[in-house]
Amino acid sequence: MQRDVAITGLGQTRHSRRRTDVSQAGLAREAALKALDDAGLTIDDIDSVVVASGPELFGAVNQPEKWLVDALGARLKPVVRITSGGGTGLAGALAAYYQIAGGFAERVLVVAYDKLSEGALQYSISTLYDPFWGRDFAVGIMGFSAAYWRARMDILGHTEEAAAMVAVKNRRNAMSNPYAHVKKEVTVEEVLASKPLAWPLKALDVPPISDGAAAVVMCSARAAAGSPAPPAWIHGMGYYCEADNAAERSLLVSEPLALAARRIYRSCGITNPRRQFDVVEVQEPYTCFELNYYESLGLCAPGEAASLIASGATQPDGDIPVNPSGGCLGANPIGAAGLIRMIEVAAQVTGRSEGIQIPGARLGLAQSGGGWANLRGLAVIGA
Amino acid sequence: MTHSRVAVVASAQTELRPAWSGAQHIDLISAVVSNVFKGTGLGLADVDFVFDSGSDVLDGRSISNCGFLGAMGAHHKEESRIEEDGLWAALYGATKIAAGAASVGLIIAYSKPSESDINKFYSSQCEPFLQRPVGFDHRAASGMQAQRYLADHGRTASELASLVARRWRDAAARGRVAVGTCPSAQDVLAAPNAARPLTSLMMSRPTDGAVAVLLASEEIALRSQRAPAWITGLGTSMDSHAFHSRKPGALEACEAAARRALSRAGLAPRSASIAEVSGSSAVGELLVLEALGLADAGKALDAADAGTAINLSGGALPADPVMATGLVRLSEAFRQLTYPRLYGLASPTSAIVHGAGGVGMQSHCVMTLEV
Amino acid sequence: MLAIPDTLPIDLAPLSSDLSMPYTLTPGHAVGTFLAEITRRRIVGARFTKSGTVVVPAVDACPLTGESDYELVRAPETGTLGSFTETSAGLIGLVRIDGADVECAHRIVDARYEDLHTGMRVSVVWADAPAEGILAIAGFRPDPDAAHGVISTLEDPAAPLEVVPYRMELHYEHAFGPYYGRLFDEIRTNRRIMGVRMPDGEGALLPPREFEDVSYRRTGTWVSVGATGKVRAMSVINLEFVGQKHPPPYIYAEIVLDGALTRLIHNIRIADMSRAKEFVMPGSRVRAVWNDSRTGSMNDISHFELIDDPSAPGAA
């Protein structure tokens, strides 16, 4: 297991439906200061900054890292923006990982955010579609995601009920998460009866629109030695992609995610993810994806995701807790969501979760992704 | 942790044209991706990761990389979008190889500014409440940089025009740039106003284009048939977003990036054989040359090529493919080091490569190469 | 360098695309107060506590020091001009308002470029008609006798503006390129959908492209695909959203036409849309329904219909 890069500071804003007291820059700053504080550092101790935010059309500011630099107090430091749709937060952390592992920097601040209340979200997301090929029918990625869920229903048994159980679990878990803003438990019946937005996706299958930011301080082993909080170590991390319209693209298993899992598990010595991971955080842009991730991450075989959720194994008291934070259903500032998953896992494995703490967690998995489900990555994080 | 050395082993570039009206983004991208491996003994199957630089705002698509992955050759490989000038993507790629996590990386950058309004690309970077409404944008920033530079150092618009005309001649002769008729210095002076004292030809000319660069670890680079160009120094820095609060008459972030890269490389700027630098306007380029240490303050116009050969490709003034400009500079510097005779060079050993981004060149990336 | 498919050059005007996106942006406390106060003709700055740096207009973080503890102050209406220029937006200059430590960008009015010089005194010109935000100041005019003003206390600041409406208008002219060019020309002219053969000849890629995505081998010759196919995935759309092109309800469908290996995205119409999820599913056979007049886009196909629509009146 590698012990080259550690996460030594964690920070999240209390995510909300709408923040009218801070600009995008102010929101990002809040999370940055929390992470720095957690690490016992100031911005002066930071060698390099990575900004991760969703597509620019979300917030009306092009290349927003250039706007943020003043608010972060990072003037004259290296600053770069990584963006990857929903996977942005993890992709940003990955760039920081390599800055450290590659000897470019000792301490890197990663700031991820989105202030989704400010723009027309589905309109902005819909522009990911080719203007020549399908954009007129786009409903963000909701239509696409729903369509392929429908296809997985027949072949893999990812029923509406199974997805509803994901909603029930995650929303219950979110009740304990001080950073989540959706605080209302639901029943399977309520999910099934909720309004179909892009059937089979219904209102309660869909995460909220959120304003929120998250930040981490990542550093080399040497720099981690002085950190006040116990460091969480990145054992392996990667981010893979798949051509959106390659021949025979079925989206049954998430191939880029399965590829990432295969490669990174191997480098980390993971042969039985269900047994070896104590906790998993996945970024579920819709409930149906969590079922897809169970299979693609090897937590169960293809076709068994519905059984897995029904068995209770992915509940906080199950043998493979998934999304004890509540996942995206509790809060979904898209550009930050991937980093929030990493933060939650890092907190779990160092015993510092502010919500539901999985007892004795030492090794965890964070998953993130974006685009047309064709950008997918994960991180293995341990104490 | 020991770090691997990293080298540039190949590059490929489309011609830079005011408008590639017969091609889509993916056509430009696949043209360079299919070309870059030839002669290296490497193929797409050897590539561990693909990093790309492009702009959602220029492309008119959110997450534009996710629709171009097939053309990038990125299918089932690691991929990441760096939404900065392509030289930043090369920097990220270098850190990944240095870390030992990969041995071959494909770096791609592209833009088609002809498909939209370049002014909107820049003005949308400006702060929306205080800057955009008053009409402050990159032209205004460049104009104010120029107004100050000419006043501070007693230089004239004619001298800027001569510089621009020279860069266009160099681009026509050696760059892969579509140049119809080279503008004379008089043509440059007579061009419509962009931001006084800068005429439109004194602003860098946006062009469509794509470029791909292949990076490799030391082990693989030494196996390739070309002489690898080692990346010996890396540095980046971003100045304040508030243009009005930056130190006037200088590019502090360029100085900081250069200091970092050159000290890592152990290279004194004026002993570099070659420099390929970006510039969003004629004065922007001069300020960059001074910030890099290639000329004293106010003297960049006088920097004859006695020492360092500057912008033999013509630089960014005749051809600025926006998100690809810095990576084109890397490609050009690599070619000059690898085929010196094509450029009338004797035996160059080192190059300073520069890319920039943002209004008034807010951020800078400097890389040094050595053969 | 670009592979040209076996066809004549096509002159298709680029595809125009307009993005007109509405926003409600939050300025934050400092800028929000500045925007609220400027309509009352009071200029608000921020004095940062630790360094004493004064920034006008007020901002939440100091651009020089990165501090964020500040008190709001009232700035005078006079200052000194720094750099300046003239663009199509008019005269733009950097003005150091008296008492401020950094400049601000604004318009210079009642002057010509030739009259300006760095160091000249300027003063605020308020807009006559009601104006939005920072444009409540029309600009700064040369004012050689302008006395030096001072920073003073801001009494009873207004509550900060929480939301500023904004609209981003972006226009694009997207080139067709060689592949989309032929594809859409055939659609428009001949009602024929063409892809390119895979490198091994088994099946066609649609839309056509130069390289096959998985193997990165060059694609083969052009080939027609059928106007019938199979649904790979579908969803019943009910959500309405700002900027939506196609009003709901409709059936979003990813369809693989006979002979193709890749999907196109379109909509399916059946007689009884309320039973969409019953009758349309992955595997359903569909047929393109063409528009009579065509322009060379996917909209030349109006929709897809089920080859056997059980919801149609008189269906078995």
Textual characterization of the structure:
The complex is a heterotrimer of chains A (383), B (371) and C (316). Chain A is built from 13 helices and 11 strands. Chain A is an alpha/beta fold. Chain A starts with a strand and ends with a strand. In chain B, the strands form 2 sheets. In chain B, strands 3-2-4-7-1-8-12-11-9-10 form a 10-stranded mixed β-sheet, sandwiched between helices. The longest helix of chain B has 18 residues, at 157-174. The two termini of chain B are 25 Å apart. Chain C has 3 helices and 19 strands. Chain C has helices at residues 29-38, 177-190, 276-279, and strands at 15-25, 43-48, 54-55, 70-75, 78-87, 90-97, 104-107, 121-126, 137-142, 152-153, 164-174, 193-197, 204-205, 222-225, 228-237, 250-257, 264-269, 285-290, 301-306. Chain C has a 5-stranded antiparallel β-sheet with strand order 7-6-5-8-9, with no helix packed on it. Chain C starts with 14 loop residues before the first strand and ends in a 10-residue tail after the last strand. The model of chain C is unreliable at 1-6 (pLDDT under 50). The interface between A and B is large, with 60 and 60 residues. β5 (196-199) of chain A pairs antiparallel with β15 of chain C.
Give the strand content of chain A: 15-25%
Question: How many alpha or pi helices of chain B?
Answer: 12
The gross shape of chain A turns out to be globular
Ends apart, CA distance between termini of chain B: 25 Å
Percent of residues in helices of chain A: 25-40%
CATH-assigned fold name of the domain at 6-116 and 206-223 in chain B: Peroxisomal Thiolase, Chain A, domain 1
In short, what is this structure?
Chain A has helices at residues 24-38, 65-71, 88-101, 121-126, 142-156, 160-174, 188-193, 221-224, 255-268, 273-276, 287-296, 305-311, 334-349; strands spanning 5-12, 48-53, 79-82, 107-115, 196-199, 201-202, 211-220, 232-241, 279-281, 363-370, 375-382.
